[in-house]
TrEMBL record:
This is Ubiquinol oxidase subunit 2. Residues 286-313 are annotated as: Disordered. Pfam families: COX2, COX_ARM. Its main location: membrane. The keyword Oxidoreductase applies. It is a multi-pass membrane protein. The chain crosses the membrane at residues 42-67, 88-108. Signal peptide: none annotated. It comes from Pseudomonas syringae pv. coriandricola. Residues 21-118 form the Cytochrome oxidase subunit II transmembrane region profile domain. One of its GO terms (biological process) is ATP synthesis coupled electron transport.
Length: 313
């Protein structure tokens, strides 16, 4: 390639990169609408920038050395007996070690602050939503309202949402990228996830763990709205002719793909715990405490609180 063609080549390369980047708009992980998601995004950016402190100089030096010491460059200094430089040793060992210490500190602090089991601090009463993973759909129960849905949840913005998650099938993963981290759904287990939406928005929820043939269609809508609209939606669901009894649930959990949204005006009491007990071998007549079999989170998670309600980026 002649020297005259270099500017044209790099111009086309820059244009090509711009075209690729134009398709990166609206990535939920980098444009979250919830405080937990914002803090996780900031952590990703900080960790990436810290690692670039090492990566960028290495790439630049590789290109510079390859150019400077090419065979055709007779002006390059030739030092075959060179073997040591204290300054270089300090740089190549000291900088990465400092970065590792800093990254370790950030990781330790953020692991506790962003523990999914840690309740969010708020003056507003949380909304509890129980999520059950089945083949291949999500069943959601609002225990405080006595209603249930399939593949859709609605909740008020700026209100903590306490998700309780389990599975009535294989292991799965509950994930709303625009709100925050994911949590696994496992049969016989009860996991927790605390999230909050900072504004009214419609989110896409997904299954983030392969679970069979219908995995790709195992999606749901998560809508953050005003308190008034949420109350109106609850009233709408309570007027639905469908009821989620034991027989209806047994039919619902049969494998099916790309299921439409369903609304149930009532639900079998303690259905979430009944599903968990199916896989624990418990005596059906034995008195038990809901939530006994929880997957352990941070030991301090229930004691600490994560300041989040109504926070802005």
């Amino acid at each position: 390639m002649s020297k005259k063609r270099y500017p044209r080549f790099f111009g086309f390369l820059a244009l090509f990169c711009m075209l690729l980047l134009s398709g990166c708009d609206g990535v939920p992980l980098l444009d979250p609408k919830g405080q937990v998601g914002i803090e996780q995004r900031n952590l990703i950016i900080i960790a990436t920038l810290l690692m670039l402190i090492v990566v960028i100089p290495v790439i630049l030096m590789t290109l510079i050395f390859a150019w400077k010491y090419r065979a055709s460059n007779k002006a390059a200094k030739y030092t075959p007996d060179w073997s040591h430089s204290t300054k270089i040793e300090i740089a190549v060992w000291g900088v990465p070690m400092l970065l590792l210490v800093f990254l370790g500190y950030i990781t330790y602090v953020s692991t506790h602050e962003l523990d999914p089991y840690r309740p969010l601090e708020s003056d507003v009463k949380p909304v509890t939503i129980q999520a059950i993973s089945v083949d291949w759909k999500w069943v959601f129960i609002y225990p405080d309202y006595g209603i249930a849905t399939v593949n859709k949840i609605v909740f008020p913005a700026k209100t903590p949402i306490n998700f309780q998650v389990t599975s009535d099938s294989v292991m799965n993963s509950f994930f709303i990228p625009g709100l925050g981290g994911q949590i696994y759904a496992m049969a016989g287990m009860h996991t927790k996830l605390h999230l909050i939406a900072n504004e009214n928005h419609e989110f896409n929820g997904i299954s983030a763990n392969y679970s069979g043939a219908g995995f790709t269609g195992m999606k749901f809508k998560a809508i953050a709205t005003s308190q008034a609209d949420f109350d109106a939606w609850v009233s709408e669901v309570k007027n639905s002719p469908k009821k989620l009894g034991k027989d209806e649930y047994a039919e619902l959990i049969k494998p099916s793909e790309r299921n439409p949204v369903e609304l149930f005006s009532s639900v079998t009491p303690n259905l979430f715990q009944i599903v968990i007990d199916k896989y624990e071998g418990m005596n059906p007549g034995k008195k038990h405490v809901a939530g006994e079999k929880e997957v352990a989170g941070n030991a301090d998670a229930e004691k600490g609180k994560n300041s989040a309600a109504g926070a802005e980026e």
